[in-house]
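Course assignment 3, question 2. Fill in each field.
Student: A.L.
Task: Predict the tertiary structure for the chain below.
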Amino acid sequence: MVSVDRLRRLGKVAAMVWFGVLIFALVFYLSLPYARFKDLLAAKLAPAGYVMEVKHAGPSWGLGMTLEEITLISQAAGAPKPTRILIDQATFGWSMLSYVFGTKSYSLSADVFKGELDAKVKSAKDGMLAKVTATDMDLADVPWLKNAINLPASGTLQLAVNLDLPKQRAAEAKGLCKWSCSGCALGDGKAKLVIASNPLLADGLGLPKIRLGDFDGRMVIDKGVGRLQGVQFKSQDLEATVEGEIHLAQPLGTSRVDLYVRFKPSDSLLRASEKLRTIMDLTAQMGKRPDGFIGFRASGTLANLGKVEWLKVSPFGAAAPPA
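Answer field:
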């Protein structure tokens, strides 16, 4: 029969062993080559068209890595200059248990665009599943939007994306993207709207700040094509609806965009800009619809949305203007 003293000695030995294992694991974890892991992550991003620069890489709580002062640089085809995304801090995590089941599970949380981004990705041989949520994003800091419309934007964006990528190919993607925007506006009263392909706007059109207010929308994605649904807004400055398609590609900035926009500026907005009023009088002759809205089609890429065609009829089918 084991004595009490012997049990105490065994307990002390076990405690010392566990303490030693804990210290070993902690030292091993802290001494991992995080700079090397950072380089591997940069190599993973390269095929998507991004160059990653990081000031610091180190451990995070759990099994993961924290990167600080990150810059992502992408040069999309046809874009006049590279797109730069600045990320204050990002934490990557991965699940060891997922490897047992033949998959790879990753998580990401990042402070970007003055908001928070959370993503969970599960990757396997037959494809990839991704769930992304973004909260309190500042539209003024989102480079793709700025490049697409050639105007500064403001407002706070909330975003939720569920995406299935069979064979990890954007051309076969399916899923749903939903968003809402509060306090949104286009322009700042100084910047000019420049569309080189349009003779009326090639030299730039000075615009007052256009308030869009609060609005939401969604995009249903099937076989790599996202179709807009319910994108409309009505504010004291403007009424508009947007419909169309986005053909997803890698990198994201090269995705092909085809949109049809109906809009009607308010009388107060037209009074604020004589040049805008003159332009609206001219465009009304080309794109004014029977419902009183002006319509145009815009196409290009997310990084370079430049081609505009005035159209009185939507190429995507008839839809009612906003009430």
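Instructor remarks: The CA atoms of residues 3 and 111 lie 57 Å apart. The first helix runs from residue 4 to 30.
Grade: pending
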